[in-house]
Design a protein that fits this description.
With 228 residues, the chain is of the alpha/beta class. The chain contains nine helices and twelve strands. The protein is elongated, with a radius of gyration of 22 Å. Bound molecules: calcium ion.
């Protein structure tokens, strides 16, 4: 689950944020005080993004930010403030916040910020779970296996390495040289054709219709592109 810590002492604002996060597929973890927020983060170490109000009844939001940042350098932090002074922004960013939203904010504005930050910090999800999930595909980087719609697809080590390269670079055109270097290594002096041969085999295994591939598409005169 995509957990987001919501630290806000005003119940109405907190509920508003929580409802909107939940609607967008996040799992909000609520806190009304700084101490509660720090405790929640301890209980939920998989929280990836935190929204922190600044004016709180106990510790101020900047101090919470400082402590969260010290315990989890990768956490994404957005400060929520009613004040618009430039000083708040500076202080917030100095204490380790990644972004800043001024109240009152619209749900769209807040979610755009949360989504953007989540994308930036969520990239290491793979390290924790060992899994890369895209569309119907689930690549397990710990045991080097691939599933499509829950069914295991048997891959050679080379095919696995190509899949991993594609899934690490969605939407990016990769030249045949890129693929050769990444998968076979720079010291491999074979022919580029080996790339095409493996892609052809991979397509038969993973495409719905390998004669009309939709996941691994050909970039004419260049190479291949992965897309979901
Ligand atoms: Ca407040």
């Amino acid at each position: 689950m995509k957990k987001v810590l919501v630290l806000e002492d005003e119940t109405s604002i907190r509920s508003f944020v929580v409802i909107n996060l939940r609607r967008s597929g996040y799992e909000p973890i609520e806190a009304a005080t700084g101490a509660e927020a720090l405790e929640q983060k301890k209980q939920n170490p998989d929280i990836k993004v935190a929204l922190l109000d600044i004016m709180l009844p106990d510790i101020d939001g900047f101090e919470v930010c400082r402590q969260l940042r010290a315990s989890d350098p990768k956490l994404g932090i957005i400060m929520l403030s009613a004040r618009t002074q430039e000083m708040d922004k500076v202080t917030g960013l100095m204490t380790g916040a990644d972004d800043y939203v001024t109240k009152p904010f619209s749900p769209a504005e807040l979610l755009a910020r949360v989504d953007a930050l989540y994308r930036r910090v969520g990239g290491d999800e793979e390290l924790a779970t060992g899994e890369l999930v895209q569309g119907p595909f689930r690549l397990n980087t710990h045991n080097r296996t691939l599933e499509k719609n829950g069914d295991r697809i048997k891959l050679t080590q080379v095919e696995y390495s190509i899949m991993k390269l594609f899934m690490d670079n969605p939407g990016k055109a990769l030249s045949r040289e890129d693929i050769l270097n990444a998968v076979w290594g720079r010291n491999y002096f074979g022919e580029l054709k080996i790339v095409d041969v493996n892609i052809r085999r991979l397509r038969i295994k993973i495409e719905d219709d390998s004669t009309n591939p939709t996941y691994i598409t050909t970039v004419w005169g260049y190479g291949y592109k992965w897309g979901i």
